Amino acid sequence: MHVSPEAHLANVAHGLGVFYIALALMNSIAALYVWQRLKQTGTAIALTAFVALLAMVAAAAMGGMPPEMPAGVKAVINNLSGPVTYTLGTTVLLVVLFVGRKFFSQPLVAWAMLNASLVLMGLSMADSNFFSIVGKPDNVPIVAMIFLVGYFTWLATYRAVQNDERDKQGLPPLEAMEDEKEKVLVWPDLVYTELICMVALTAILMIWAILLQAPLEEPASAVKTPNPSKAPWYFLGLQEMLVYYDPWWAGVVLPSMVIGGLILIPFLDYNKKGNGYYTIAQRPFSYLVFQIGFLDLWITLIVLGTFLRGPNWNFFGPYEFWDSHKVEALNNINLSDIFWIKVMGQGLPTAPTGAGAMMKLWYILQREWLGFVLVIGYLVALPPLMAATVFRSMFVKMGFIRYMLMSNLLLLMIALPLKMVLRWSFNLKYIISIPEYFLNF
Amino acid sequence: MSIGETIRNSQAWKSVFRHPMPVDRRNRIVVVLTNFFLHLHPVSIKKQGIALSYTWCMGGVTFFLFLVETVTGVLLMFYYRPTLEWAFQDITALRDVASLGIMRELHRWAAHAMVITVWLHMYRVFLTGSYKPPREFNWVVGVILLLLTLLLSFTGYLLPWDQLAIWAITVGSNMARATPILGHEGPGAKLLEIGGINMITNASDARFGLLGARFVGEETLNRFYVLHCIAIPLVVSLLLAIHFWRVRKDGGISGPL
Ligand code: HEM
Question: In this structure, is residue A267 part of a structural domain?
């Protein structure tokens, strides 16, 4: 069901008006706070001007004309976006935020970023294609998740930056200040906090449940396959990995390794510092590894799989219509094809007809030898090499078993972005491809 | 005597609450020690342990959402029959006929929220380094809770028996076909060939064990229903008890030494 852009605008105008009014209220409270408490008159005036602008926008929206993203900008964004730009873009963004964390975690800067993302959201919601995906009832929690993850990442970074600064000056972390160490009684301090939390949460859930009806589609039918067929949203990162990996790896081995790797964290991280307070500088390695896994792979891929993957799992820009007839050329080739056909200029080694099992296996090994060498080299040769060089002190402190576990888990995690890059640059499908035994890697 | 006082002096009240109102220090301590629900908590706690900016209250929120799921889930079970004939119809009736028709909404949105808050809780525990000694074991319990939370959500996703449900579960469970050795399209499945007879087929592999059939059908609905309403919640409850117990035994909420 596709509504015309005009009909869509009329549908969302009122809701967007409320949204901009809420945004204006939020910013006027901020302006008051900045003026009264922080005594920053200049900033307060800027915020007030922003509130006035929002009020006008809200009025326009209420009047049926919510501002829209200019068509030209939408087209540029749609054309630019693709798996490559999306993945690289989010990674670059995270790196910039991390490197500049001292600047970006300042409350006012963070506030500006929040406002910017909310305004972007409001402008985009006026687009019917964007709305039809983001506004799906089951996708609403993911929008909430993006903002919650963003907020809490900011909060943790803000505190870590302060603690790291204090550490430099020889001060204990904020969490160890005298009044923080002071003991309070659970009744009333904790019990009342819990009560208030429960009441607030109940209210939020009730409002959410009343406003948004749970989705219910047509009754199940084993013959009508929807396109796209998607797993529940929290597994969409895994489904996205199917683009790059065979199911046995993306769907079984890697998820098990995520769980196993999480379980192993306390036993692999030998760093005693950073226990019980926020810090980055005192534990940079574990912090970065975790964030690559959590923010840059898990969360980012879920967002990609949910919002940007349409029919046939094709990539669609945020303002693009999900056209099930869109065709994307699939010309991915295996490493063995590249080696034997392109480089050596001959056919793949194939066992003669009627050959025995061992003979066939021998030919398969011959065909895939380069892949085997690369994979085994990556997993077996690289860890000792790193132990002798970059991870030298780590190896000494961790001992053989812990070091091998850590380095292999790390390499397997990094293999995902590596595989992505290989796909984008060489159309590489599988490094090892043995469909005879369902063993593709 | 006011009514309140009369009630509080009655034998019935005193049989439940064995101390005066928690208005002074002594009785505020006693209330936590003698109340079954409150004694999960210590009597006093470091200020930092209850600071929202430190714990984000995400473990507590996750637990609360679990309770919401339990209550709304029981109410939904009153109406819902896990059979091909009735499942979808009962869900429609829940929306159109049952009074208090937002139970399904509450249950679904709280479930989504719980997945998010459990991730955020893990995120906070990681960022404060709270998995470090002596809390390694509780982190491990937590990871299993995280996995079970996802499985709870996954098994529940099938129950409405609409297109969204069966295809999401189909896509999700298709991966099990490719389980190494135990999936009929997985690497190594041929290793279990005995005398030319393949042991791992689409009617005996890991996916079959999960679905109870070769495709998502009535057996699957029944299996997921039992997992969703009984098996997983029981295990989660047990692990939660251990989790909370260990938070206290490991010295309360973490903090700098
Ligand atoms: C159903 C899911 C879970 C529930 C209901 C739950 C509940 C809680 C609660 C109420 C606390 C007290 C402190 C707080 O609120 O932060 C806590 C602490 C803790 N949780 Fe969880 N949790 C769950 C899952 C997890 C997961 C997934 C992990 C880690 C992977 C985890 C690891 C821990 C650890 C290590 C502590 C101690 C933290 C400290 O002392 O600072 N939990 N949990």
Answer: no
Q: CA-CA distance, B244 to A309, in Å (whole number)?
A: 40
The domain of A391 spans 335-440
Contact yes or no for A134/A225 (Cβ under 8 A): no
Asked whether the beta carbons of A79 and A123 are under 8 A apart, the reply is no
Check pocket membership of B55 for ligand 1, CB cut-off 6 A: yes
Close Cβ partners of A286 (under 8 Å, ≥ 6 residues apart): A265, A269, A271
Per DSSP, the three-state class of B193 is strand
How many domains does chain A divide into? Answer: 1
Which residues sit opposite A318 in a β-bridge? none
Pairing of strands B197-198, A183-185: unpaired
Please classify residue A195 by burial: count the beta carbons closer than 10 Å to its beta carbon, then call 0-12 exposed, 13-18 middle and 19+ buried: exposed
Q: B143, B145, B135, B141: which is closest to B254 by C-alpha?
A: B135
Q: How far is CA B73 from CA A50, A100, A207, A424, B84, in A?
A: 45, 46, 19, 46, 20
Q: Give the number of A-B residue pairs with CB atoms closer than 8 Å.
A: 266
Q: Are the beta carbons of B171 and A239 closer than 8 angstroms?
A: yes
Q: Which residues of A touch B130 (CB under 8 A)?
A: 275-276
> In angstroms, rounded to a whole number, what is the distance separating the alpha carbons of residues A156 and A149?
10
Q: How far apart are the first and last CA of chain A?
A: 40
CATH 1.20.810.10 domain position(s) in chain B:
45-249
- Ligand 1, atom 5, lies closest to the CA of B63
A270 found inside a domain = no
Nearest to A152 among B31, B61, B120 (CB): B120
Name A95's Cβ contacts closer than 8 Å, sequence gap at least 6: none
Is any ligand 1 atom within 6 A of the Cβ of residue B232? no
Give the separation between CA A293 and CA A259, rounded to whole angstroms: 12
Confirm if B22 and B31 have CB atoms less than 8 A apart.
Answer: yes
CA distance A199 to A178: 31
Crossing angle of helices B136-158 and B163-174, rounded to 10°: 130
Mention every residue, 6+ apart, whose C-beta is less than 8 A from residue A164: A279, A280, A281, A282
Residue B64 contacts residue A197 (beta carbons within 8 Å)? yes
Residues of B in contact with A155 (CB under 8 A): 53, 56
A372 belongs to a structural domain: yes
Cβ neighbours of residue A258 closer than 8 Å, sequence gap 6 or more: A293
Report angle CA A239, A242, A243 to the nearest 5 degrees.
115
CATH topology assigned to domain B45-249: Cytochrome Bc1 Complex; Chain C (1.20.810)
Residues 228-257 of A with CB under 8 A from B: 229-235, 238-239, 246-248, 250-253
Closest atom, ligand 1, to C-alpha of B149? 1
- What are the φ and ψ backbone dihedral angles of B194, each rounded to 5 degrees? -120, 120
Q: Containing H/E element for A361?
A: helix A357-367
pLDDT by residue, tens only, chain B of 257 residues:
789 989 988 999 989 888 888 888 898 888 888 888 888 888 888 888 888 899 999 999 999 999 999 999 999 999 999 999 999 999 999 888 877 778 999 999 999 999 999 999 999 999 999 999 999 999 999 999 999 999 999 999 999 999 999 999 998 888 888 888 888 888 877 777 777 777 778 878 888 888 988 889 999 999 999 999 999 999 999 999 999 999 999 988 998 87
Distance from CA of A432 to the nearest CA of B (A): 12
The answer to the question of residue A421 being in a domain is yes
Write out the two tokens for A339: 């080696």
